[in-house]
TrEMBL record:
GO cellular component, one term: membrane
Transferase listed as a keyword: yes
Span covered, complete protein: 337 to 493 of 493
Lineage: Bacteria, Bacillati, Bacillota, Bacilli, Lactobacillales
UniProt name for this protein: Signal transduction histidine-protein kinase ArlS
Organism encoding this protein: Pediococcus argentinicus
Predominant cellular place of this UniProt entry's protein: membrane
Record's keyword annotation contains Transmembrane: yes
């Protein structure tokens, strides 16, 4: 199964804009043409939803989320950046583990079981991709997904 990832990314972006009108969403797409990525559409959609849900959940004060899409000849990269509470270096090592939650007491009222990111990582790695995190407490987080490109269809074809 292959997916037009830019189209999917834009759709998820539009859905979140509609569902969370209190947030400012930006989309920066630097991808030219249509890179074809071998991933089941629903799986990529689920990963994007997990990252965006988290960005919304953990941004209490500054409600702003930046999405970006870029590509090299080998891979596409999607980034989800928030300006929320951020994650310490110590916790960042563990957020992709099943059932891990940074602050159990505080996170409890936000729902969730600490499964989202472990599912996201498992799915992305299943397709030969990577998922990574860059974060700073009090400043926010950036989650990046990279997926290998199968082929490239030119825009005017
Ligand atoms: P769910 O099972 O519903 O996904 P969850 O959000 O707790 O619940 P994960 O998505 O796996 O589970 O996230 C694990 C933990 O990582 C969270 O509990 C939270 O502490 C932290 N975290 C994840 N994303 C962010 C973010 N964007 N900003 C700050 N902390 C985050």
């Amino acid at each position: 199964e292959t997916t037009d990832v830019v189209k999917l990314f834009t759709q998820v972006f539009n859905d979140f804009k509609m569902i969370h009108p209190d947030f400012t969403f930006n989309l920066d797409n630097d991808i030219e043409g249509n890179p074809i990525v071998q991933i089941y559409r629903n799986h990529l959609e689920q990963v994007l939803i997990i990252l965006l849900d988290n960005a919304v959940k953990y941004s209490v004060d500054r409600k702003e989320i930046h999405l970006s899409a870029s590509s090299t000849s080998q891979a596409v990269e999607f980034a989800v950046q928030d300006f929320g509470e951020g994650i310490s270096e110590e916790s960042a090592k563990q957020v992709f583990n099943r059932f891990y939650r940074v602050d159990k007491a505080r996170s409890r009222d936000k729902g969730g079981n600490g499964l989202g990111l472990s599912i996201a990582q498992r799915l992305i790695e299943e397709y030969g991709g990577t998922i990574s995190l860059e974060s700073s407490v009090g400043h926010g987080s950036i989650f990046r997904i990279q997926l290998p490109i199968m082929k490239h269809v030119k825009k005017d074809q």
